[in-house]
């Protein structure tokens, strides 16, 4: 790990994307999203992703210029992402439904053919700070096996909620898998076994071999209920966006296939009566106080905000290889220009 | 258990409610909801509940006549349930937002001061059969402890999704607790220990004593993630409906307190392009086929529909005491009339 100053990381990441042909406004959205993941302690959704994004631009499965095409059906915005950068298409859609929800009370965006959205907490926080409620869902490449199933049939299907409060917004952002494929890779890189119950191998048998698990399937979180939840999200996203489903999904883990998963945003305007926010904050404080001295109760977002404060001041711990790759990419790009 | 013919059960349940002053239209909604739970194998949400509903009407914390009061804010319907019967207030709200969503694409109902909604699958199935998508959430009396928490701070907070398909709708209906308090009571009645990890006692210590668990707290499903999900739902419902939260919620488990939890419905019109439904059904069949011969994969709703078919033909297995109580209530009511 190297500790990198936040502004230095931002400068390098922006330069890498701009050298790949991404205009400054679009590059800023993409980089701010990745850096917010680094700040919140989610390196799996951070600078690590930049290399693949650049490869995908080179392979023409990311169009860095488009914001997608929009069609309203009532207050449901049907979005074709046209292979744009995930956050560029998503933010353009969010801006429209957020504006619409001010008068309409609620609006929905159903997005297909968009690239990876990255960490959903970034979107939830953004909308909540504007004073609106966001519910966000995505499906993704099939990595998770159904309860009793022997192969991967559903994505890690993350889900987020953002809710404005008096102070920091309430932000929940969770995948419906027990662990991420990134965590399995981490164990494989260290040649360590994974805990039992995390994954199946390629033939559908339970395994503790991280290398075998990489070719197999991750367990859903929470057994039968978590499986049902992840599947319900997959079907909901499919019904609204007409995206690909399960093993038909590509383009979230590779560098050369068009991305055909779906994303759904629901923005709800909470109205003028914001007295309730104080009651919610008191409730969350009571939840925090419901533990014991040796095991604190955390509310979703608490740990992320603690990381954030610490890293803004003291810098981001970035994997040596990731940082080295970014520097090299930048150098190669500047040589090509000379 | 006594096996009761479906129509006989319906006749007795309707008569019990009507003898308590519930008009036929309202009684029909309430009874159809309870019987649908019996049909789907969810006796905990079935005829068992009728006794408390009648007690709550007698104690004037259920007003069997009202459908609640409505106020539109854009396409968000703010509903004060005015202590009405859960399904009566809920169906009135659903009818309005469902009609609104035809043109608007999406509409939301945020309900407070309504009685217990019962099994959410009934609402999800109803809206999906009309060709619309439903997302439903409720909070409830605090029975579930936070991850690392030592006392009950959130409800069992059920969540449902209903999605129209070509054949039977997709219906997911799940609580965010590991088990229901009904299951704990079942173990207590049999004087059997509960599995470890299910519950804490009143002092916050893990227990396998079902009697101690009744005075303690149930675990969330899926550890930290399930806790976060249930808490996120509680906060979302609170932000939209201004209902009571956590230990402040009453009236879902007692017979004499006004019910102050909240309910949220989101109805989304899927538009005319229903070609996607066939693709979803093929996907769900592939999910069902992803298991092994000795352990089948079930899609949410599969088991409920199997129960339903069997029970419509062969009758409902109803607890002897529950059935005896209903008969006695009916007899007492008819004697009072004479």
Automatic annotation (TrEMBL), chains A, B:
InterPro entries: Mal/L-sulf/L-lact_DH-like_ah, Mal/L-sulf/L-lact_DH-like_NADP, Mal/L-sulfo/L-lacto_DH-like_sf, Malate/L-lactate_DH-like
Top-level taxon in the UniProt lineage: Bacteria
GO molecular function annotations of the record: L-2-hydroxycarboxylate dehydrogenase (NAD+) activity
Protein name per the record: L-2-hydroxycarboxylate dehydrogenase (NAD+)
Family: Belongs to the LDH2/MDH2 oxidoreductase family.
E.C. number: 1.1.1.337
Pfam families linked to this entry: Ldh_2
Keyword annotations from UniProtKB, A to Z: Oxidoreductase
């Amino acid at each position: 790990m190297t500790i990198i100053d936040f502004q230095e990381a931002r400068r390098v990441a922006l330069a890498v994307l701009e050298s790949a042909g991404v205009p400054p406004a679009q590059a800023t959205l993409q980089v701010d999203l990745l850096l917010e993941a680094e700040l919140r302690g989610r390196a799996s959704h951070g600078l690590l992703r930049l290399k693949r994004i650049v490869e995908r631009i080179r392979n023409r499965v990311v169009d860095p210029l488009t914001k997608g095409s929009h069609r309203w059906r009532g207050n449901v915005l049907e979005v074709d992402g046209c292979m744009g950068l995930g956050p560029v298409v998503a933010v353009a859609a969010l801006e429209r439904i957020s504006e619409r929800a001010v008068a309409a009370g609620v609006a929905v965006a159903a997005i297909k053919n968009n690239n990876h959205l990255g960490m959903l907490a970034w979107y939830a926080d953004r909308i909540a700070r504007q004073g609106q409620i966001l519910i966000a869902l995505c499906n993704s490449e099939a990595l998770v096996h159904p309860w009793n199933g022997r192969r991967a049939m559903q994505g890690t299907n993350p889900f987020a909620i953002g809710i404005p409060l008096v102070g920091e917004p309430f932000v929940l952002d969770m995948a419906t898998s027990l662990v991420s494929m990134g965590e399995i890779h981490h164990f494989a890189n260290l040649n360590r076994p994974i805990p039992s119950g995390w994954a199946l191998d390629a033939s559908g048998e339970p395994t503790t071999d991280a290398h075998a698990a990489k070719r197999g399937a991750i367990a859903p979180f929470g057994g039968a209920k978590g499986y049902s939840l992840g599947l319900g999200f997959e079907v909901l996203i499919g019904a609204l966006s007409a995206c690909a489903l399960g093993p038909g999904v590509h383009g979230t883990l590779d560098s050369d296939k068009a991305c055909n998963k779906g994303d759904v945003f629901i923005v709800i305007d909470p109205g003028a009566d914001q007295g309730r926010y104080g009651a919610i904050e008191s409730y969350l404080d009571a939840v925090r106080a419901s533990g014991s001295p040796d095991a604190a109760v955390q509310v979703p977002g608490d740990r992320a905000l603690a990381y954030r404060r610490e890293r803004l001041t003291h810098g981001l711990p970035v994997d040596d290889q990731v940082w080295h790759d970014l520097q090299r990419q930048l150098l190669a790009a500047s040589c090509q220009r000379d």
